[in-house]
Design goal:
This protein has two domains: about 5-65 and about 310-425, Aspartate Aminotransferase, domain 1 (Alpha-Beta Complex), CATH 3.90.1150.10; about 75-310, Type I PLP-dependent aspartate aminotransferase-like (Major domain) (Aspartate Aminotransferase, domain 2, 3-Layer(aba) Sandwich). About 40% of the residues lie in helices and about 15% in strands. The chain has twelve helices and 13 strands. Strands 4-10-9-8-7-5-6 form a seven-stranded mixed beta sheet, with helices on both faces. About 45% of the residues are buried. Bound molecules: 4'-deoxy-4'-aminopyridoxal-5'-phosphate. 4'-deoxy-4'-aminopyridoxal-5'-phosphate binds near residues 148, 231 and 234.
């Protein structure tokens, strides 16, 4: 047991007794290096502090929700103000209409908005609306793409039965032939096609959307009447001040949003085009907390910052600085580091690293130097980061590459990721 993270260890032991598996979902214990903390005590700006009081520059941004900095004073003041007035009430406040107006005003394909709590709520609602709109059942989605943790889409099949997954056909993202084959199999029963804004699956290189693929998805939906759904839960607002596929000129019929739209306060959204309005009004969806006013106050302030600041240009410039600096430093140390995806949502993988032992060593060395990176999931930049933060991360990387270089021949296999070398990716 490392005495340096004793509070974390103690919490893990207590969690094991009262939380199934010690922790669940994407925070489940086991798929990160052993020295990574499980528990945190606070966040401010671009930094987080673990339960043992150590501070890190955080390149995970809460897996996306932190866009303008943890505890952002303007956003949190709006939240707290509304909390004092009323949050969970018998019905919504005017803020719900204002938030819908703000999102519809920002996202070019959208004529309406519905609010919920998690990204999974929004993607599941999208599926139901597409089926209600088309009166058809089949959904096409890309292998390996994450759309949430409901029975229809959870990546782990335990406890899921065949009928939960019925009427789904998988294709390869960016592969027109495989898309067309899926469409052929759907016959005249196609309700919708889900698309990630870019390929952001875990464990593998990220990929930009291929324009021919995106256009073909749109064309097929137009020809068949199926709805095109862009799942912008993860990438929304880090690529564009609009739906992410607006950058390539392809408009969906529905788009799902969550994570950073209120800078970490709990609210997600489904936006839709006019043609899907009737079906959206006809389905029954709700939740005890879906009309909460305080997250909407935070969301309105977040969207104001999206409109009125140069946050996107700044995080893009910071991302480029990071990418260029890391390319230089990895090369100088003799490593082939693949940096993929948009610069605002980078993923780092080393060549010749099937069980990620190099990635684990590098990430642990970054952590030891106060920089929290992820060895196999895409990361996120936030507008609270500065050039000095990025330069500090690059210094840390220089140190981490140095240690990796000295130890690379003696690294132990990462047994918990042995499934990767067994051909799972
Ligand atoms: N879609 C995508 C692309 C996601 O990244 C996520 C969450 N990581 C979801 C849907 C589900 O969102 P949530 O965890 O808020 O239910």
């Amino acid at each position: 047991m490392d005495g340096a993270n004793s509070r974390d260890r103690e919490l893990r032991q207590r969690a094991e007794a009262v939380i199934p598996g010690g922790m669940y979902g994407h925070q489940a214990v086991g798929l990160l290096p052993d020295d990574y903390p499980q528990f945190f005590e606070k966040g401010e700006g671009a930094h987080i502090w673990d339960a043992d009081g150590r501070r890190y520059l955080d390149f995970m941004c809460a897996y996306g929700p932190n866009l303008f900095g943890y505890a952002n004073p303007q956003i949190d003041a709006a939240y707290v103000r509304q909390l004092g007035l009323g949050d969970t009430l018998t019905g919504p406040t005017a803020l719900m209409v204002e938030m819908a107006e703000a999102m519809v005003g920002m996202v070019s394909h959208a004529a309406w908005a519905m609010f919920c709590k998690n990204g999974t709520d929004a993607t599941s609602m999208a599926l139901t609306i597409a089926r209600a709109h088309t009166r058809k059942k089949t959904v096409i989605r890309a292998k390996g793409a994450y759309h949430g943790a409901a029975a229809w889409c959870t990546p782990r099949p335990t406890g899921v039965i065949e009928t939960d997954r019925a009427h789904q056909i998988f294709c390869d993202y960016n592969d027109v032939a495989s898309l067309e084959e899926a469409v052929r199999q759907a016959g005249d029963d196609l309700a919708c096609i889900f698309a990630a804004p870019f390929k952001h699956d875990a464990f593998i290189d990220q990929a930009e959307p291929d324009l021919a693929y995106a256009r073909r998805v749109r064309e097929i939906c137009d020809q068949t009447g199926a709805l095109l759904i862009v799942d912008d839960v993860r990438a929304g607002l880090r690529l564009a001040r609009d739906c992410s596929w607006s950058k390539i000129g392809v408009q969906p019929d529905l788009s799902s949003w969550g994570k950073c739209i209120a800078n970490g306060h709990p609210i997600s959204a489904l936006l839709g085009a006019e043609k899907a309005r009737k079906a959206a009004a006809a389905i029954y969806v709700t939740g005890s907390f879906w009309y909460q006013a305080a997250p909407m106050a935070a969301g309105l302030e977040t969207l104001r910052l999206v409109r009125d600041t140069d946050y996107l240009e700044r995080i893009t410039a910071l991302g480029e600085r990071l990418r260029g600096g890391l390319a230089e430093r990895s090369k100088a140390a003799g490593f082939a580091l693949r940096q993929t995806g948009p610069v605002t949502m980078p993923l780092f993988l080393f060549d010749d690293d099937p069980d990620l032992r190099k990635g684990f060593c590098f990430s642990s060395e970054m952590l030891a130097r106060g920089v929290y990176v992820h060895p196999w999931h895409n990361m996120f930049l936030c507008a609270a980061m500065t050039e000095a933060d990025i330069d500090g991360a690059l210094d840390a990387a220089e140190g981490a590459f140095g240690v990796l270089k000295r130890n690379v021949r003696d690294l132990a296999p990462v047994e918990k990721l042995a499934f990767l070398s067994a051909g799972a990716r």
